Amino acid sequence: MPRTRAIPRQSLPEVITNDLRERILSGEMAEGETIRQEALAEDYDVSRMPIREALKRLDAEGLVQLTNNRGASVTKHSLSEIGEIFDLRVLLEVDLFQRAIPQMAEADFIECDRILDEMEKSYDAYDVGRWGSLNNEYHMALYAAAGRGLSNEILQRVNVQSDRYVRMHLSVMEQREPAKKDHRELLSLARDGRVEDACALLTRHIQRTKDQLLEMVIATRKSE
Which CATH code, of 3.40.30.10, 1.10.10.10, 1.20.1730.10, 3.30.420.40, is assigned to 12-74? Predict the structure, then answer.
């Protein structure tokens, strides 16, 4: 008699959290937008309880801001906060990459190649949401060999904050080709064991995104 398989089941708040997170990261729910719990409850055809739980989780991630009177809005970062997010990425990712490269095995390179192939398919399909997820997966695969669990946890939290801006950078500023080139070169330098050159490129890669994004956000907010 065949054994039954355990299928992971998501709770209702978890399902709503994941969907709301994607709506925020994709820009469907704009920064600073007021979140009305009653309207969300109608959208998802649920009571307000799972909505409140989902918003609490997103508040903990920094994507939503809850106030004492139970109001909520999509987090709108200041320019200095956006800059800080990318500065933190440089600090964390360059350190992880520097530690990872000497430890990377062929299996790590194969996994990174696989993800890059999937990323390039998402480029061609102009699937920004899929690209955003794969971009995070690729960077984490580059650093996996470092074996730095706490650093990875902190970086994942920072990446939740940066993801919507990275997607914005790709979709609005048409940065697919430079990103594709950088990602391939990072892996090539890592394969060759060129730690200093790889870390320098990673720094430029993140810094360029930061600088271009800040210019765009400044222009957008002025027009508003």
Answer: 1.10.10.10
